[in-house]
Amino acid sequence: MGQGAGRNQEVTRLIGRSAVLALLWIAVSGHVGSPEAWFEGLAGPYHVTVRVVPAGVVPGVARIYVRATGHIPAEVTIHADRFDATGGSPPPEPATRVAGDDGLFEGKLWIMTSGSNSVTINVSGPQGAGKVVVPIVTVPYSRLTLGKGMGVGLSVMGAFLFVGLVTIIGAAVREGSMSPGETPTPHRVRRARSAIAITSVLLAAALFGGWKWWNSEDANFVRSMYKPLKAEARVTTGGNSRLVAISIADSAWIHRNDLAWLQRNGGSSWTPLIEDHGKLMHMFLIRDDIEAFAHLHPTTSDTVTFSAPIPDLPEGSYRVFADIVHESGFTHTLVSSVRVPATERAGSVRPNPDDSWFAEPVTKGNARVAMSDGTTIEWKRGSGDLVAGRPASLSFEVRNSDRSPAELQPYMGMPGHAVVHRSDGSVFVHLHPMGTISMASQLAFQMRQPGDSVKGTLGKRLAHAEMATMKNAAVSSNVVSFPYAFPRAGDYRIWVQVKRNGRILTAAFDASVAEEPEAN
Description:
Elements: H1 3-22, E1 37-43, E2 46-53, E3 60-69, E4 75-82, E5 93-97, E6 104-111, E7 115-125, E8 128-138, H2 148-175, H3 186-224, E9 231-238, E10 241-248, H4 251-254, H5 259-265, E11 273-274, E12 282-287, E13 293-296, E14 299-300, E15 305-309, E16 316-326, E17 331-340, E18 356-358, E19 368-370, E20 376-379, E21 386-387, E22 395-399, E23 417-422, E24 428-431, H6 439-447, H7 457-471, E25 479-481, E26 490-500, E27 503-514
Parallel strand pairs: 21-27
Antiparallel strand pairs: 1-2, 2-3, 3-6, 4-5, 4-7, 5-6, 7-8, 9-10, 10-15, 11-16, 12-13, 12-16, 13-18, 14-15, 16-17, 19-20, 20-22, 22-25, 23-24, 23-26, 26-27
C-alpha cells in the first residue's frame, strides 16, 4: 500500500474515532446525537464540502476537513470566531493537503469558548479566492468519570507516596545529623515521631483541601455544562381538530428579559429567535415505531408556546423534535414526546402549505419509492456499506413516471429536506443540500456588524435577507444530495422531501449502518 493510501485510511479512522468522542456533545446545529457540522456549497469559485468535528471539551481543538471538487485550490486556511467577538478575527491557520488526495485538506482550530461559534474557510488558487462561513455550536455536554481501575491505581500510588514522604521526614529528623553507626537517642526518636505526626496532619489537611477544591471545580463545571432548554409537548382536541403544542418550560427562557432574575439565578441571557427557511420553528413528530412522520411549522404569540394542527397521523406515542435558531446563530433542538389520540374526523387540516406528513408502509431495503402521482424517488447509495463516521452517499434522484428527469421546485428555499432518525431516537438530524447547518445561523455570522449589540437589531436584517434568498431560490437538477456521516452504528430511517407541481412529496428509506472497523 502506498503512503498516500495509508494516509487516507489514517484520516478516515481519525474521523471515525473523533465522531465517537463527539457523541458526548450536542454541537453543531443543535441536532440530537449528531454533533458534527457539515456544509456543501461554493467558496468563491470553488465547490467545497466542509466537515467540522468538535473536540469534546471547551476549550478544545476541533478538526476541520475541507474537500474541494472540480477546481482545486492551491491554499486553504481556516480560522474560528465567536459570534459576539468584535475585536477582529484571529490569524488564519493553514490547512494541509492530505497526501495522495489533492482535493482533501485538514486542519485544527482551538475553540476557546462555549456557545455560538463559526469556522471560516478561506481558499485561493488559479481560479481566484473565496471564503465561506460555517456556523457551529460548541458546548460542554458531558462529564467524563474516572475509571475504577485508574482510581484504584492512583489511590495506591498516592498512599505509597504519602507513607514514603512521612517516612523520609521521620528518618531525616531521627538520623539526619548522626554519624554512621550511631544509635538514635530516645530524644531523637521522640522528635522523629512528633515530625511524623505533624507531617501526617499537614499532608492530610493538604489532601483534604485539594479534595474540597477539586469537588468545587467539578461542581462549577457541572453547573456550566450545556443543558438543553426544557420543553413540554401536549395534544389538545376539540371538535374535528387536533393541535400539538410545545412549550419552552425553561425558566431562563421564560425570564430571558428579566436581568435581575437572571443575575440571581445564574441564567443565560438568550437572544431572540429568528426565522430559518421562513419559519420560527420546524417541528417533527416521529412515532415510536418510526411508521409515521410529520414535518410541521407551528405558530406562536409569545415565543414560549408554539402550536400547530396535527394532520392525519395514526394514533400512538410520538417523539417530538423542534428546531429553533437564535439571533446569535445558536441553535436548539427541543425534545419531548406526546400521545396522539385517534380521531373519527375525515379529511385533513393543513393551514400551513409547507406542512407535510407520511404514514405509509416502508419496504426494508427498497431503494426506489413510487409516489401516488407516478413520481419516483430513488436513493443512489452506491455499492459500498454505510459505516459510522464515514461520509455517506445520501443522493436521491427524482423522476417522472416515464423515467424522465422530474422538474423540482424550491421547498422553503431549498431543493429538498431530509430527516435522519435512529430507530431508538438517540439520533435526529434535519438535513439540507447545504448540510447540517442552519441557513439563518450562517447569515447571522455573515451579516453581523459591530453595531448589532442591541438584541433584535440584526434579526430584522436577517429576516429581509432570508426572504430575498428564498425568493430567488431555484432548483437546477432532479438529483438532491445531502452531505452527512452517520455518527454511530445502528438502524436508521431517512425521510426525503421534495416539492413539485406545488405538492410536497415524502419518501422513506431504511438504512443499516455498520461499526467503523478496528485499525490493524
